[in-house]
Amino acid sequence: MGKTISILGSTGSIGRQTLEVAGHLGCKIKAISASKNIDLLEEQVRLFSPELVAVFDEEAAAVIKERIADTKTRVVQGMEGQIEVARGSGADIIVTAIAGQAGLEPTIAALKTGKRVALANKEPLVCAGEKVMKTAEKHRTEIIPIDSEHSAIFQCLKSEPSRQTNLKKIILTASGGPFRGKTRKELENITPEQALKHPNWNMGSKITIDSATLMNKGLELIEAMHLFNVNPDQIEVVIHPESIIHSMVEFTDGSTIAQLSNPDMRQPIQYAITYPDRKPSLTKPLDLTDIKTLTFEKPDLETFPCLRLAYIAAKKGTKACAALNQANEEAVALFLAGKINFLDIAKRIVAVI
Predict the structure, then answer these.
(1) Three-state SS at 336
(2) pTM to 2 decimals?
(3) Left, alpha or beta for 277 (phi > 0: left; psi -120 to 50: alpha)?
(4) In sequence order, what E strands does 100-206 have?
(5) What tens digit of pLDDT does each residue of 224-279 get?
């Protein structure tokens, strides 16, 4: 293709799949960043020969610098290093895939470049949506979402030139996670190992737990609100366990447009890179005769209150959304460490917002 890419968060799930897609498309990797997974980072450096690598952890940065001393790749460290990668190092596309609120500052730096930003981490829009969108507008930066749902919405809206006047609502689909249909009583003794077994998607641990609590969908509705300039009441969440329809858009005339594909993050990643073009991808083509049934349900907001809390925060505004996100990050970390139970995640968030 000839396009060059810089990746923030190259050792995470999205980062690894982005490198796979980049290899498939023949893209050049200019710069990559990670927190401290130096073993995988060294493999990536030797395979893709980036000009720059940033490691957030200072000790890990010193180790990787010694390990790749025989290469031409330059090593930087800390948040300053992440921001240097975010500035693109001359890349055509900057993929922002740092999990959590830690991705906010690098994402803002990427948006200031005026280059295309392929946005995978939703937290910057959750915590500072107005700032993110205003920065993009000021620098005329094109944001292409990588989240499968937001990519689907983006693609559906491309069919409607007058989308702001003709858009009625966004229908955000959710798999329901591993505990769909369970009662609160059944969720009392859920272990992190059980919560990390998602039925459809292969994702990082934090986002997988968010999917299990439905907080991931709550964060996505806040992200969609900013990306597509709609209010929370224009976003409806629907449980769709097959994860074939990734989201839909309903217009004022009653027409609904959906985007369908097999659940594979490499498809939206590739679309963000090749847009407006489409190329043969690594995703298995969809065969509806194999699927036979597509089902839809309303979310259970009593059993999974995190989604309801996200709607409340979205209506309250930026500060409430930032508090929701931070409380959730802390609560999920405590759950993964075995310090609180699964239902305590929502209770901790309620106490904060």
Answers:
(1) helix
(2) 0.92
(3) beta
(4) 116-119, 143-145, 167-174
(5) 999 999 999 999 999 999 999 999 999 999 999 999 999 999 999 999 999 999 99
104, amino acid identity:
L
**Token pair listed for 86:** 């975010």
Peptide bond into 276 cis (omega under 30): yes
Structural element, H or E, at residue 258:
strand 256-260
Spatial distance between the Cα atoms of 303 and 195, rounded to a whole number of angstroms: 15
Q: Name the band, by pLDDT with cuts 50, 70 and 90, for residue 100.
A: confident
- 196 three-state secondary structure: coil
Q: How far is CA 176 from the centre of its chain?
A: 17
Count of all residues that appear for the chain in the document: 353
The structural domains of the chain, ordered by start, are: 4-146 (3.40.50.720), 150-263+290-352 (no CATH)
Residue reference for tokens 């609100």: 225
Torsion sign (Cα): 53, 58, 62, 67? negative
| Beta carbons within 10 angstroms of residue 297's beta carbon | 13
The residues pairing with 53 across neighbouring beta strands, listed in sequence order, are: 32, 75
Beta bridge partners of 163: none
Q: In 10 A of CB 123, how many CB atoms?
A: 25
C-alpha span between 170 and 277 (Å, rounded): 24
Question: C-alpha angle with apex 176: 300 to 146, nearest 5 degrees?
Answer: 125
Integer Cα distance of 210 and 212 in angstroms: 5
d(CA 121, CA 106): 11
Distance CA 288, CA 332 (A): 36
